Amino acid sequence: MEAPVCIRSATLADSGIINRIVERSIRVGCALDHRNDPLLVSHWLGRSCVDLISSHLADPHFYLCTASFEDKPVGVGMARANGEILLCYVQPESFRRGVGRALMHNLEGWLRVRGARNVHLNSTRTAEAFYRHLGYRQTAPPGLSNGLQTVPLHKPLSLSA
Hints:
InterPro entries: Acyl_CoA_acyltransferase, Bact_Acetyltransf, GNAT_dom
Helix content: 25-40%
Oligomer: single chain
Number of helices: 6
CATH superfamily: Gcn5-related N-acetyltransferase (GNAT)
CATH class: Alpha Beta
Distance between the termini: 25 Å
Mean pLDDT: 86
Structural class: alpha+beta
Shape: globular
Number of strands: 8
Keywords: Acyltransferase, Transferase
Domain N-acetyltransferase: 5-158
Protein name: GNAT family N-acetyltransferase
Strand content: 25-35%
Pfam families: Acetyltransf_10
């Protein structure tokens, strides 16, 4: 039996590890999206600096959480109270171990408690199948964001989950 994934609210002390998780997930796990183009990678990583993370931790309209597996930090998720999932990144060596699912379940629960009836996000092509497996559906044609193709996805939240 595999160890459970542990999710907890992030703190300011987690900023460095959050940044490293996001960077590794983008560089390795999302290579099909950015095609190892240094400019695209740099632009994508520019959104996840420690200062940005710190400001979101201080804002009650945002929720940032971390995931640990076998006592190692392996994932990060972030949601905005308006129903938007902003981040769900997992260390590539922890893919397909339930980390992403646990993060999404936690983020959706946080949104549900705040009265959100729907959740939405923009997925990369790499992550699209993962989100669809969790019940998300495409809401509009794919678009471009910072040079990357993204797919807008949506999911209604049940009140009883």
